[in-house]
């Protein structure tokens, strides 16, 4: 954007009806809406001011322009049009409003009464009004009609001509009419109807005829606007090249405003018709000129483009170096501002001459003062950088070469020779190619000394903020445009476009970004040449546009390793940066580190690099610019790269590397496989930390992996002690403690695989935990009681199983204590064939498990019995009924075991269990399991609290039952009292629905007890409410 010619302001927001057409009348807005109404809006200040005058015939003279403030609805005229309004126009000299809908009508202002309707214009799609003569021409199908206003209330038909095709656009041009038909433009002689061809119209867009204030015409041919005179002859004044084909164009000197599909473009009417300003607005329906304001109507809102004062525009153009355009605007200042015009022109000429003086100061060694004048004169940085031939600059397809500024610098000696005493000194300003090699070398060295570069650095830093800000804005707009599918048009005046049939933008080059690349590349070189390494690093760490190839070669030649790392980093060249950093770390750790390193590089720097959030600072494409905006961590964008280079420092920085894996967004399986291959000793540490952070985020495969690692270490430790005959089941190494803790605390591993690896005569505690995970509770409890001889562990095991059940009261979880009772009461039975059952379990676990589940679901009441039958184990059957057969289950089982010898029961453990867990054990089942010789006094700790609890529960239920019965009686009493209500029907009782007497008819009473209706009327009303389906009545029927 060169400068701001118009300020956009939203006059009306969120209209309740869709806007079809818009026009202005004085300071009021006239909106024709889709509902056929005409809505008049006035400024908010006028609506709130009681002294505001009422509409009158001279309203236009009192308030000729729209105001830059919100508008509010003043009044609405309904039924103004029966069909959508195509256009409206205010005829100033006749105080009429012309409207084009189903026909053309004229309305008297300010009351909007219909003055005349041209019935012949029914179906017209285009018209043109000649304000000077009062002539109206319109096109209908393939006819063009001309009417004349007779000065009164009517219009007189003048001519009616036929044309070859339907007219798309038309305008008066003197005495003739220019028509844009489907394939060409023609000039229609309004006297005899003779047609003269002008040139063919475009292939993509419809014809567009725009009348200029000078009487000439602007004809559209796709995205090109061609100037012709009133006779249709081409004018040699160039052409307006819009970025896309405009749908409408309005002209307000010195600018032409075009309505494009996705935005509005404002271009200068001076050759070469450059782009001045772009305003992005969507769904624009109408655009028109009102006095000096451009009115833009969208579907539900209206914007006003108010012109920026000419003086302010001149200041903007002068500051940006567009002196010719600024001088042209000076001529538009009114005659009464002649002094202001002279001052502006003088200021512009002074600023144009400043670069010559700055060039003279630079050649004479006054570098600081020269840069001040260069900055004040707003010359392009390319010209200033051309004074530094040793600084390498990137080539640009948009920024012109410095030779185009030779009228400023190269011709300075000639221009100043006759007017300044400094001409002799400026004779030395010769091109470099005119000097011999020795003189050229001397001149270059003089221009690259410290003072020269410091002056350049200050100049570039002052220019940098605005240039980088514009480049970032263009990058953002381009990124958004790509993201929404090219539905956004960026600001700018120098972006060449390639337009195809679909009018899609093929490529967009950026002036601001190319300028920023030149500036940052030069600034980086100047900073390093003056020894300002810290400032160069700060430049690279922020948003910068340094040219990669040039800066890389420059930094490599001068061994600026830290700056080179930042250059790679800001360009997302992580592989190159990490390779360089790894090499620098190795060189730093070598016995004879190179002297040019400058600093010591540590392995932790690689970890820090892998952690850092990396973006690309140079938005060479919209995709990369979106990455810059979104800022993704390196661990999430390239995890393979992180793993590859982290392995190089894993041994030297193990804890930092593991922390990197945990903090980064890298898949745990990927990290585990990398560690397993390159650093197996760190695999356990990584898995332990992963589980400590969040167990649910660790997959079952990784949990199995960690368990296998623990078990392998424990088995190696067991084999070593067993070979020395020093194995003790109660010995615990640190790894075994970790294994036991993990087996109990983790639930995602596969216990069957681990169980197969355990030795048959050792590691019983691990075996018990695994059997518990497989729901083999009897085997697990047998190990705790008979193998480990630790009943406390068995009781803790039962508590965990019970407490993990639903509400701690499930049958399967409550029976766990009965299983422990059986183990205490039948020690020989539970230990018999223990090893055989373990072997059978591990070999045929899969099929047996599915069979157990199926049988358990089918016969839930006989769970223990079925499991015992399936596994082939001679277990004690647990009866679910409380019936006493006179003989205990222990006695029955003991009789069956007489052939195998007697067994010593653990009665003390049984009594302790009953006393401690009386509230979790089914009393009847427990008594059936006890031997008949058990003394009753030994069962007092079990039976006492059990009976007290049962009695308390019985009493509580009795109280609740009584309360329920009492509540039921109260409800019945309320029901009886409600049914006692009586309704008295007299001869005057009327139906509330039909207003007829009730008489002896069946009637219904509403719940209020007062409203009476016929039952038939009530049924009819209910049928109407329910659509004839009928509904149950909530009312009493008598």
From TrEMBL:
One of its GO terms (biological process) is intracellular protein transport. Keywords: Cytoplasm, Protein transport, Transport. The keyword Transport applies. Residues 416-432 have a biased composition (Low complexity). It is found in: Cytoplasm. Residues 416-441, 874-900 are annotated as: Disordered. The keyword Cytoplasm applies. This is CNH domain-containing protein. It comes from Salvia splendens.
């Amino acid at each position: 954007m060169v400068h701001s010619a118009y300020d956009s302001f939203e006059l009306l927001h969120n209209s309740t009806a869709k806007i079809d057409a818009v026009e202005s009348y004085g300071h009021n807005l006239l909106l024709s809406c889709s509902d056929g109404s005409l809505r008049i809006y006035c400024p908010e200040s006028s609506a709130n001011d009681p002294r505001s005058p009422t509409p009158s015939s001279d309203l236009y003279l009192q308030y000729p322009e729209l105001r830059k403030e919100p508008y509010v609805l003043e009044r609405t005229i309904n039924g103004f049009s029966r069909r959508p309004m195509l256009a409206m126009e205010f005829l100033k000299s006749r105080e009429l409003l012309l409207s084009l809908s189903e026909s053309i009508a004229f309305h008297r202002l300010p009351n909007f009464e219909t003055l005349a309707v041209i019935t012949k214009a029914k179906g017209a799609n285009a018209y043109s009004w000649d304000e000077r003569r009062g002539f109206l021409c319109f096109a209908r199908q393939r006819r063009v009609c001309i009417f004349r206003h007779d000065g009164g209330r009517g219009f007189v038909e003048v001519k009616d001509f036929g044309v070859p095709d339907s007219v798309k656009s038309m305008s008066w041009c003197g005495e003739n009419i220019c028509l844009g038909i489907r394939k060409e433009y023609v000039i229609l002689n309004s006297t005899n109807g003779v047609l003269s061809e002008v040139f063919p119209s475009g292939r993509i867009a419809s014809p567009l005829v725009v009348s200029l204030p000078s009487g000439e015409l602007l004809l559209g041919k796709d995205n090109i606007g061609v100037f012709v005179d009133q006779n249709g002859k081409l004018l040699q004044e160039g052409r307006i090249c819009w970025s896309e084909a405009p749908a409408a164009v309005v002209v307000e000197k010195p600018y032409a405003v075009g309505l494009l599909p996705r935005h509005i473009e404002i271009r200068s009417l001076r050759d070469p018709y450059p782009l001045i300003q772009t305003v992005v607005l969507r769904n624009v329906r109408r655009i028109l000129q009102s006095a000096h304001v451009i009115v833009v109507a969208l579907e539900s809102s209206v914007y006003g483009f108010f012109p920026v004062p000419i003086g302010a525009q001149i200041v903007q153009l002068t500051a940006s170096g567009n002196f010719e355009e600024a001088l042209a605007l000076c001529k538009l200042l009114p005659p009464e501002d002649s002094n202001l015009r002279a001052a502006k022109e003088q200021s512009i000429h002074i600023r144009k001459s400043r670069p010559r003086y700055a060039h003279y100061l630079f050649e004479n060694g006054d570098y600081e003062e020269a840069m001040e004048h260069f900055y004040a004169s707003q010359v392009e940085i390319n010209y200033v950088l051309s004074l530094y031939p040793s600084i390498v600059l990137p080539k640009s397809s948009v920024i012109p070469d410095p030779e185009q500024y030779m009228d400023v610098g190269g011709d300075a000696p000639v221009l100043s020779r006759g007017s300044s005493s400094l001409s002799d000194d400026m004779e030395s300003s010769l091109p470099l190619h005119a000097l011999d090699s020795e003189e050229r070398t001397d001149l270059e060295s003089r221009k690259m000394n410290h003072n020269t570069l410091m002056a350049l650095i200050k100049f570039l830093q002052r220019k940098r903020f605005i240039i980088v800000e514009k480049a970032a804005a263009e990058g953002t707009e381009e990124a958004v445009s790509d993201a929404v599918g090219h539905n956004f048009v960026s600001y700018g005046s120098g972006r060449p476009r390639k337009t195809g049939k679909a009018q899609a933008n093929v490529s967009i080059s950026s002036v601001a970004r190319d300028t920023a690349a030149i500036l940052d590349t030069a600034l980086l070189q100047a900073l390093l040449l003056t020894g300002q390494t810290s400032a160069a690093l700060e430049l690279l760490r922020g948003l910068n546009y340094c040219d990669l190839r040039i800066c890389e070669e420059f930094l490599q030649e001068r061994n600026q390793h830290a700056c080179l790392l930042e250059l790679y980093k800001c360009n997302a060249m992580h592989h190159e940066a990490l390779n360089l950093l790894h090499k620098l770390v190795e060189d730093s750790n070598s016995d004879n580190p190179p002297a040019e390193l400058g600093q010591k590089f540590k392995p932790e720097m690689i970890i820090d690099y892998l952690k850092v959030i990396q973006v690309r600072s140079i938005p060479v494409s919209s995709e990369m610019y979106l990455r810059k905006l979104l800022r993704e961590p390196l661990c999430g964008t390239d995890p393979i790269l992180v793993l590859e280079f982290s392995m190089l420092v894993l041994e030297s920085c193990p804890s930092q590397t593991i922390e990197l894996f945990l903090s980064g967004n890298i898949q745990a399986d990927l990290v585990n496989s990398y560690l397993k291959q390159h650093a197996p000793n760190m695999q356990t540490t990584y898995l332990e930390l992963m589980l400590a952070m969040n167990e649910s985020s660790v997959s079952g495969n990784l949990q199995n992996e960690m368990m296998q690692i623990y078990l392998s270490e424990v088995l190696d430790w067991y084999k070593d002690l067993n070979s020395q005959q020093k194995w003790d089941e109660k010995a615990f190494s640190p790894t075994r403690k970790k294994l036991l803790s993990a087996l109990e605390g983790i639930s995602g591993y596969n216990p069957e695989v681990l169980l197969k690896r355990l030795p048959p005569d050792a590691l019983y505690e691990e075996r018990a935990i695994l059997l518990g995970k497989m729901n083999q509770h009897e085997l697990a409890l047998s190990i705790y009681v008979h193998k480990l001889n630790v009943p406390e562990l068995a009781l803790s095991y039962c508590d965990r199983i019970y407490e993990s059940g639903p509400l701690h009261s499930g049958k399967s979880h409550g029976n766990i204590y009965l299983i422990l009772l059986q183990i205490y009461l039948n020690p020989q039975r539970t230990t018999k064939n223990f090893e055989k059952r373990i072997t059978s379990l591990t070999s045929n676990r899969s099929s047996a498990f599915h069979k157990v589940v199926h049988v358990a679901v089918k016969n839930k009441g006989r769970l223990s019995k079925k499991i015992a039958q399936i596994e082939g184990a001679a277990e004690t059957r647990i009866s679910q009924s409380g019936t006493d057969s006179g003989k205990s289950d222990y006695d029955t089982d003991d009789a069956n075991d007489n052939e195998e010898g007697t067994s010593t029961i653990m009665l003390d453990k049984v009594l302790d269990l009953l006393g401690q867990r009386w509230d979790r054990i089914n009393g009847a089942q427990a008594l059936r399991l006890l031997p008949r010789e058990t003394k009753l006094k030994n069962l007092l700790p079990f039976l006492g609290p059990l009976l007290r609890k049962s009695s308390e529960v019985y009493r509580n239920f009795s109280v609740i039952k009584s309360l329920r019965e009492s509540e039921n009686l109260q409800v019945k009493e309320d029901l009886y009292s409600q049914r006692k209500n009586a309704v008295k029907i007299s001869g005057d009782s009327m139906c509330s629905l039909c207003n007829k007497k009730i008489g002896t008819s069946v009637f219904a009473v509403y719940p209020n007890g007062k409203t009476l209706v016929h039952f038939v009327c009530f049924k009819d009303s209910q049928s109407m409410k329910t659509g004839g389906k009928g509904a149950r009545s909530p009312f009493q029927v008598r």
